[in-house]
Write a structure and sequence with these properties.
Elements (H helix, E strand, L loop, with lengths): L1 H10 L4 H44 L16 H12 L10 E4 L9 E11 L3 H6 L4 E11 L6
Antiparallel strand pairs: 1-2, 2-3
C-alpha cells in the first residue's frame, strides 16, 4: 500500500504548470513592455521626421497662414511652427525645441533649415528602470532651397 502511494506522488503534476507559469510570466511581461515601448518610440520618431519634412516643404513655398481668430496673415516663421505643431499634436512639442534658420524662413533661392529637438521619456516601468536617465533627445533637421517665390 505504501509503495502504491509513493508511485502516485511521483506521477502527480498538479502544481507543475503553475510553477512554470510563475517562472515565465516576468520574462513575458518584460518582452510585452519592451514591444510596447519600442512601438511608442518608433511612432514618436516617425511623427517628428514627418513634421519636420512637411514644415520644410511648406517653408520653401514662401506661403503664410492666417490667424483663425482674426483672419490676419501670420509671419512665415510662425506659419512654419504652426505646421510642425499641427503634425505633432499628439506629442506636445515644446516651442523652445523648434528652430528655423534663417529665423524668418529666408528669401527666394535661400536655403532654409528646420529643426526639432524633442525629449522622449520612457513610460513603461521596467523599461524606464533599465535604461539610463529614463529618456533620450530626438533631433531632426531638414534643409531645402526656397522656391523663387514673390514676397
Amino acid at each position: 500500500m505504501a509503495n502504491h502511494r509513493l508511485r502516485q506522488l511521483k506521477r502527480s503534476t498538479s502544481g507543475q504548470s503553475l510553477a512554470e507559469f510563475a517562472l515565465v510570466l516576468p520574462v513575458l511581461l518584460l518582452v510585452f513592455m519592451g514591444i510596447f515601448e519600442f512601438g511608442r518610440f518608433y511612432y514618436t520618431r516617425l511623427t517628428l521626421q514627418h513634421a519636420v519634412r512637411e514644415a520644410t516643404r511648406y517653408a520653401i513655398t514662401g506661403q503664410t497662414q492666417t490667424d483663425p481668430e482674426t483672419g490676419e496673415p501670420i509671419s512665415r516663421a510662425n506659419s512654419i511652427v504652426s505646421v510642425i505643431l499641427a503634425n505633432t499634436a499628439t506629442l506636445h512639442v515644446d516651442l523652445d525645441g523648434i528652430s528655423i534658420d534663417p529665423a524668418d524662413g529666408g528669401g527666394p533661392e535661400e536655403i532654409v533649415r528646420v529643426r526639432v529637438d524633442f525629449g522622449y521619456d520612457f513610460e513603461m516601468p521596467l523599461v524606464k528602470d533599465l535604461l539610463p536617465e529614463s529618456g533620450v533627445t530626438l533631433s531632426y533637421e531638414t534643409a531645402m532651397r526656397n522656391e523663387p517665390f514673390y514676397e
